[in-house]
């Protein structure tokens, strides 16, 4: 991955992956692209940036050629809750963008990464310790695009020899960039509200277990998979990965270790609860561990400690900026 084109660079994953790859491999090692430009944003200011709508294949091809990239990391997509509100737009963007990115990778012989999700599973999937290879009949448009994307990426590997790789991300928690329209976003929002108000009202109900991961582990996983020896890979699209599985009461208990009087309340959103109920409770990540040494470093309490420390500084800076 000497020169990477990243789509959706301003998103929750893209914004951190761009900065990490530039820190590891040099400013010009990442061509960051997104559909909009945000003045003063560190991703845009720190290296090559291009406006790119991923439904515009010719523009994507031009950028890939101009910068002579060797890898595409395709992140631009609508997440689960927004996709369920706008299913036709989600299909067009998630699948249209993916086909364009795969075609550019095929024509220019590029390595390729795009994430799948625990959202690629459905109610018929074994919920506990969900196997790597199992039934995938998601009941959300997001899940339909994710399982379709997995099949398409495997097809491009088998039919055209494109070096496609992917992971099924759990809910991702980070402090740098707010998530945009996901079902697991409650697990990010709760930390902000804990610091601001010592209280949070969750839109996901008590007892709803979902797999989760802290963003540093997610970024490490992408880099580790993309650098893995292809001869070790039995699977490609996409690997189960997870660091922890918890329900709202458990993340609240972890927060109370640092903010003892934190209060958790509930106002369940039926739409997002229905999505969460259709997903597994916990994944089996043994294939990722065996085939490319996946090894997450953050458990719930270590993540909570880091999130609260980093968010405290971020919120203080934001306050300073606002004044
Ligand atoms: C979402 N954060 O909630 C994403 C992710 C597993 C959840 O795919 O849609």
What does this structure look like?
By secondary structure, the chain is of the alpha/beta class. It has two domains: 4-171 and 213-240, NAD(P)-binding Rossmann-like Domain (Rossmann fold), CATH 3.40.50; 178-211 and 244-280 and 298-322, UDP-galactose 4-epimerase, domain 1, CATH 3.90.25. Helices cover 46% and strands 15% of the residues. The chain contains twelve helices and 14 strands. The strands form four sheets. The chain has a six-stranded parallel sheet with strand order 3-2-1-4-5-7, sandwiched between helices. A three-stranded parallel sheet has the order 6-8-12. It has a three-stranded mixed sheet with strand order 9-11-13. Strand 1, helix 1 and strand 2 form a beta-alpha-beta unit. Helix 3 runs parallel beside helix 5, helix 5 (87-108) runs parallel beside helix 6 (141-160) and helix 7 runs parallel beside helix 9. The chain is globular and about 55 Å long. The termini are far apart. The mean pLDDT is 96. The structure holds (3R)-3-hydroxy-L-norvaline. (3R)-3-hydroxy-L-norvaline is lined by residues 79-80, 117-119, 142, 169-172, 179, 182-184.
């Amino acid at each position: 991955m000497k020169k990477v084109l990243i789509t959706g660079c301003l998103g929750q994953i893209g914004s951190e992956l761009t900065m990490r790859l530039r820190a590891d491999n040099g400013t010009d090692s990442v061509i960051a692209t997104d559909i909009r430009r945000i003045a003063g944003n560190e991703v845009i200011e720190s290296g090559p940036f291009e406006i790119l709508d991923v439904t515009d294949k010719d523009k994507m091809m031009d950028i890939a050629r101009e910068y002579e990239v060797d890898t595409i990391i395709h992140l631009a997509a609508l997440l689960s809750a927004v996709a369920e509100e706008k299913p036709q737009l989600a299909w067009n963007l998630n699948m249209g963008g993916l086909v364009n990115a795969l075609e550019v990778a095929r024509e220019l012989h590029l390595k390729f990464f795009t994430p799948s999700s625990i959202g690629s599973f459905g109610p018929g999937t074994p919920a506990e310790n969900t196997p790597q290879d199992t039934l995938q009949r998601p009941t959300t448009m997001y899940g339909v695009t994710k399982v379709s994307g997995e099949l398409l990426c495997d097809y491009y590997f088998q039919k055209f020899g494109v070096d496609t790789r992917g992971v099924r991300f759990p809910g991702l928690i980070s402090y740098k960039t707010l998530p945009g329209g996901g079902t697991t976003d409650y697990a990010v929002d709760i930390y902000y509200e804990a610091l601001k108000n010592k209280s949070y009202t969750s839109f996901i109900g008590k007892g709803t277990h979902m797999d989760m991961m802290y963003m540093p582990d997610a970024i490490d996983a992408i880099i580790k998979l993309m650098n893995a020896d292809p001869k070790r890979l039995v699977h490609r699209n996409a690997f189960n990965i997870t660091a922890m599985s918890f329900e709202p009461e458990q993340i609240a208990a972890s927060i109370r270790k640092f903010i003892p009087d934190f209060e958790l309340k509930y106002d369940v959103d039926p739409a997002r609860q229905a999505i969460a109920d259709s997903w597994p409770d916990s994944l089996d990540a043994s294939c990722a561990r065996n085939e490319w040494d996946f090894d997450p470093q953050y458990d719930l309490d270590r993540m909570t400690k880091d999130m609260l420390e980093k968010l405290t500084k971020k919120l203080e800076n934001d306050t300073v900026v606002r004044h």
